[in-house]
Amino acid sequence: MKLNGLHFLLTYQCTFECDHCFVWGSPRQTGAFTLQAIRDALRQASEVGTVEWIYFEGGEPFLYYPILLEGVREASRYGFQVGLVTNSYWAVTFEDACQWLEPFAGLLQDLSVSSDLYHSDDPQDRRAENARRAAQSLDIPCGTIHIAQPEAGDCSGAVGKLPEGESGPMYRGRAAVLLAARAVKRPWASFRECPYEDLRQPGRLHLDPLGYLHICQGITTGNLFQQHLSEICQGYDPDLHPISGPLLAGGPVQLVELYELAHEDAYADACHLCYSARRDLRQRFPEILAPDQMYGV
Which of 97, 156, 252, 282 has the most crowded Cβ, counting Cβ within 10 A? Predict the structure, then answer.
């Protein structure tokens, strides 16, 4: 595995409880990074030698603002490109947004702001707009993450046609439970590949506050608190991994067939079938299909 990006899930906690959330973020979620754990992970990322980008995500990373800011500073000191993903709950006014973002000026190469009907009843989300304007005034590159409603079609483009700049929801995490019923379904046997993740050569991993490294949210390939990042990357064999192996061989269908799992006749997308199968497999692979937070437990 040649790793070029490490994405910190700084916390599973969030100000919102969005129906499409991969990680079941909510005000009641638990799990947050300590500063020391961030420093240890950044040091290991530097020692790997191929990592170029560090992202801080959540949950909502701004909930732990001092830890977030020092983590960004530390990543910048290592020479990494640094990105940040936020729902901009803090950007109540343009002036407020400038105050929150000013310490990050010169440190961020990307600020991604969520702006859609999962985060606001107003399609023209004022807080997201305040954050974008503040970022522009501080010369912080800024983009928008806009996830469409299920009725608009899936993100692979197989169903419906989304407006430019929008992505469809992926039906894993909370979306598999709350949104899939509203989506157009396809026969379960049609999902014979994973269209969203490169499981053979994952260029980036998500690292959560419990140390788990995710090749896809809820599919882990080791724990950074137990083994060095470089050893985990070197030891990853996608074909022998009990979850990525079947997915590479024949997608979610192969996962269901190999482990003889019950299934419905149709699913919203490949993620929906994969996530449903993984929930049924958790007792068999508790250290790989982890942690509980990723499965709404």
Answer: 252
Tens digits of residue pLDDT in 104-140? 999 999 999 998 767 766 656 799 999 999 999 999 9
The answer to whether 228 and 222 are in contact (CB under 8 A) is: no
Cα maximum dimension of the chain: 57
CB 50 within 8 A of CB 3: yes
Residue type, 178: L
CB 220 within 8 A of CB 287: yes
Strand ranges in the chain using DSSP code E only, listed in sequence order: 5-9, 53-57, 81-86, 110-114, 142-145, 186-187, 204-207, 212-216, 219-223, 266-267
Confidence (pTM): 0.92
Query: DSSP class of residue 239?
Result: T
Q: How confident is the model at residue 174 (pLDDT cuts 50, 70, 90)?
A: very high
Judged by DSSP in three states, 68 sits in helix
Does residue 291 have a cis peptide bond before it, meaning omega lies within 30 degrees of 0? yes
User: Which are the contacts of 230, defined by CB distance < 8 A and separation ≥ 6?
Assistant: 44, 47, 48
Instruction: Check if the beta carbon of residue 132 is closer than 8 Å to that of residue 113.
Output: yes
Residues 9, 132: Cα–Cα separation, whole Å: 22
Helix (H, G, I), strand (E, B) or coil at 220: strand
In three-state secondary structure terms, 85 is strand
CA pair distance 192, 249, nearest whole angstrom: 8
SS3 118: coil
Q: Rounded CA gap, 83 and 261, in Å?
A: 39
| Range 279-286 contact pairs with CB under 8 angstroms and sequence separation of 24 or more | 281/243, 281/255, 284/259, 285/242, 285/243
Coil, strand or helix: which one is 256?
helix
Select the more confidently predicted residue: 222 or 159. 222
Tokens encoding 173: 């995490």
